[in-house]
Design a protein that fits this description.
38% helix, two-stranded antiparallel ribbon, 3 helices
């Protein structure tokens, strides 16, 4: 977020652009666990399974359903589904997004 102060009025602008998960990654249940795995030739170099807890799987499903999303949208879903305040939800979503970015799960 960027804060701009003009004439004692502070405007807060969110410069976060919409994000999108890469095509070719799917969430599957394997032996009772939710895992993200690669499918198809677009992700042929990705040879991992990523295990997600219940909350991360919930966020993944919402991100896939929405297509394009912002961290704020995903945090709002968390607040609606779980007993969590918006500040904590957004921090958790941002942390998860950073991990997923490091794994190469987002469109560039």
């Amino acid at each position: 977020m960027v804060e701009v102060e003009t004439d004692k009025t502070i405007y807060i602008s969110n410069l976060q652009k919409n994000m999108k998960l890469k095509n070719g990654f799917v969430l599957r249940e394997v032996c009772g666990e939710e895992v993200v795995m690669a499918e198809g030739l677009d992700v042929v170099n990705f040879n991992k399974l990523i295990s997600l807890n219940e909350t991360a799987a919930f966020i993944w499903k919402k991100a896939v359903k929405d297509g394009d999303f912002t961290p704020e949208q995903l945090a709002e879903y968390l607040c609606e589904e779980y007993d969590v305040d918006s500040k904590t939800a957004l921090a958790d979503v941002n942390s998860l997004i950073e991990k997923w970015k490091d794994m190469g799960l987002f469109e560039e």
